[in-house]
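Hi R.,

Here's the chain you asked about this morning:
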Amino acid sequence: MIALLPAPNALLNTEQAATFLNLSPTTLTTWRVRRSDGPPYVRIGRAVRYRLDDLQRWLDAQTHRSTAEY
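And the predicted structure, written out as tokens:
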């Protein structure tokens, strides 16, 4: 069965975003609290959401071809 992908501007909760990035939800929470270089997020009241297209752009920016790039 083929899973349908959400729209690029879809808002994902922390668990969904973590699944997309193959990370734990705790990692995303920690990054929100302690790091400024994690993926961007949207705060709606107390709810935290991630735009799918923001996650993809952030993931693309993390792509390197060599350890010499650091």
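DSSP finds three helices and three strands in the chain.

Let me know if you need anything else.
M.
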